[in-house]
């Protein structure tokens, strides 16, 4: 009888131990690890809205043109591309004067009806394009590679909790350049919507110290109706120190990728105007007018910026 009782006790202990092991394993696997930066970048890589605003396709096309500071015929072709991304996000926890980890109140901002404790984040996307430039003269042909830099910004708000898609992060605003470009554009549509493409187009700023970005809220972007004729004119901005005399303008038009060259001389405020018909229907909700600036004093490097608009 004693042996039977002993066997029952031992058997019961072994059975309980076996049942406890999978329970312990499950509790370890069910603990999620949330990394806000990873979720924001996953949003950038998957959401159509982000893919349209930060695309590289359609920003260039092989184009032949002339410039006022040279008697050659130029031809451009993109032969290489590189991208880097820089994310700014204030930490949720900081150390106080005692060395204890406490909630970082500076990481939250009041957005009224959207929430009184909202976190902000900024992603800067920098693209470098290697462009093969062929210059054809009457007696010779020269081929060079120039580097064009384009920086765009994404402004995010966390408007939901960690149970929501992308743990609550939402793309809220867009920046077409990182610093004021020194060259603006005016845009006029055949349906009567006129707007500017300089720093005034990006009036908003973060409410925390997360970044110095200036952005336009996605819902406040100007609209261009499908099939509108878009007139683009470049002009000199107030802080411009050295004027690029040639601007390459690229966008999607009714017949595919549209590209044109606009010039402006030193002594005039406004440059050439270019116009084109936009697609109807337009397959993209968010569109980009891409402008390259060619400086005659440093033709080996180009800067560029984009002006976004909605198609409705």
What's the structural blueprint in terms of helices and strands?
Blueprint: H1 2-29, H2 36-46, H3 48-53, E1 63-66, E2 73-89, E3 93-95, E4 101-103, E5 108-109, E6 118-136, E7 141-158, E8 169-175, E9 183-189, E10 194-196, E11 216-217, E12 229-236, E13 246-253, E14 256-263, E15 270-277, E16 286-294, E17 301-310
Parallel strand pairs: 7-17
Antiparallel strand pairs: 1-2, 2-6, 3-4, 5-6, 6-7, 7-8, 8-11, 9-10, 9-12, 12-15, 13-14, 13-16, 16-17
Question: TL;DR?
Answer:
Helix content is 14%, strand content 44%.
Outline the structure in words.
This protein has 312 residues and is mostly beta strands. It has one domain. The protein is 14% helix and 44% strand. It has helices at 2-29, 36-46, 48-53; strands at 63-66, 73-89, 93-95, 101-103, 108-109, 118-136, 141-158, 169-175, 183-189, 194-196, 216-217, 229-236, 246-253, 256-263, 270-277, 286-294, 301-310. The strands form three sheets. Strands 1, 2, 5, 6, 7, 8, 11, 13, 14, 16 and 17 form an eleven-stranded mixed β-sheet that branches. A four-stranded antiparallel β-sheet has the order 10-9-12-15, with no helix packed on it. Strand 6 (118-136) and strand 7 form a beta hairpin. The chain starts with a helix and ends with a strand. The model is unreliable at 1-28 (pLDDT under 50).
């Amino acid at each position: 009888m004693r042996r039977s009782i002993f066997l029952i006790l031992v058997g019961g202990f072994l059975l309980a131990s076996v049942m406890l092991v999978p329970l312990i394993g499950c509790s370890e696997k069910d603990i999620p690890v949330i990394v806000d930066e990873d979720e924001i970048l996953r949003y950038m890589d998957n959401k159509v809205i982000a893919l349209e605003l930060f695309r590289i396709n359609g920003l260039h096309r092989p184009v032949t043109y002339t410039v006022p500071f040279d008697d050659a015929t130029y031809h451009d072709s993109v032969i290489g591309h590189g991208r880097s991304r820089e994310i700014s996000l204030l930490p949720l926890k900081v150390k106080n004067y005692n060395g204890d980890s406490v909630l970082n109140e500076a990481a939250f901002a009041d957005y009224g009806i959207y929430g009184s404790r909202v976190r902000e984040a900024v992603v800067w996307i920098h693209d470098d394009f290697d462009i093969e430039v062929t210059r054809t003269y009457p007696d010779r042909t020269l081929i060079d590679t120039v580097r064009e830099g384009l920086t765009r910004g994404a402004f995010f708000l966390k408007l939901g909790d960690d149970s929501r898609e992308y743990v609550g992060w939402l793309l809220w605003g867009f920046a077409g350049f990182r610093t004021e470009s020194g060259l603006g554009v005016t845009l006029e549509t055949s349906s009567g919507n006129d707007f500017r493409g300089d720093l005034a187009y990006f009036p908003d700023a973060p409410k925390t110290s997360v970044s110095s970005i200036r952005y336009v809220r996605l819902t406040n972007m100007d609209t261009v109706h499908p099939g509108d004729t878009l007139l683009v004119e470049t002009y000199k901005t107030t802080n411009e120190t050295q004027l690029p005399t040639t601007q390459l303008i690229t966008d999607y038009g009714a017949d595919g990728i549209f590209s044109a060259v606009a010039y402006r001389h030193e002594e005039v405020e406004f440059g050439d105007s270019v116009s084109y018909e936009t697609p109807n229907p337009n397959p993209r909700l968010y569109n980009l007018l891409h402008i390259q600036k060619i400086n005659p004093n440093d033709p080996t490097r180009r800067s560029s910026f984009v002006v976004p608009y909605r198609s409705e």
